[in-house]
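Wait, can you check?
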Amino acid sequence: MDLPQEIINSVIFHLRHDPSTLLVLCLVCRAFLPESRRYLYQKIAHGQQAYVPYGCLMLNPNKNTQLFISLSRGHSSLAKYIHTFAYIFSPGSGGNERICGSLNASLQLMTNLKDLSLFSLGIPLSRLVQGCTFELEVFSYTPLVSEWDSGSIDLHEFVTHQRALRRLMFIEINPLDDDLKSMWPATTSLPRLQHLTGDALAIKHLLPTCSPTSLSWAMVLGGDFYNVPNLTQKLENLRSLCLHCIGPPRAPQITPLINHCRNLQILHISGTPNRDFFIAGLPVVLHFPNLRIFIQSFPTENLQQIWNTAQGDLSAYLELRRTEARTWFQVLHHFQVAYFQHSSIRGNKCFVAYERGAPDLIGVEAREVWGVSPWI
């Protein structure tokens, strides 16, 4: 296929946020490949997880060494395009040990890397980042507590040496308080951190070390962090709050947040869908007088199946939310828009928006909502 370069460049530019479609196009017509590489390699994820950074090109987790081989054997220049990289380890897999060296070698080549996510990590972090020179702005990390020794992982040293770090996610399953206390001592300082994501125990230990304006709390894992020193001051600084929970949160569960987040502008409920999400109201929204934006998201691939299991009525759900949004516009004088997810997070325009003064619903891409408030 002989196409003018101007047309090729124009098509690539319009598909730059849709790496999956761009990849298919390159497979059909190799003329698109040279100029497409900067976008195809910009955001890469190994494995299918809803909480990887949005917009990543999802690679087959069963072929997780192909990229490493490609980068280390003659195509190392491609690594400079990678700004976002996520790797989901397979829990209990002996293959994690085998790929450790290849992954470390590839990470060393990613000198322009800004966003790194390592999920279900059961090997020492130091083995993966040894020799790396990137300066991260975003780091997401979920270790397997049953497979690692907190004393052998220099997580604290790694994170505190990332001087440009703006966003940090740290979530453990069944964490131990003493482990986190030694990992994040009171002397920890994260002066540039703007967004913190964690379970209650992680927030308890990390919140005193920084003054974020955005907080994401994995409520689904239980517990709370309400005994944090200077909690009132920390919460008054918040402009954006994301709550990941099963079912809509009730006021008694988050009373301290309601009492102190008086300056909150963005409230995001990122939930594990159940019937309550589809039929219950969201009265908690009205407790935040300066709220401007509300988001409800379900970061899962099989939302339609969940709808069917819960016997949910999509039209009734959207009408319920429309009615609530009208009340928010009337009561909350600064409120501008509410986003509600109605189909799979990877689907086209999977959110609808109710905007102040707009007569109709507006379809919205997940990318736009992610830019306002990422989900967990």
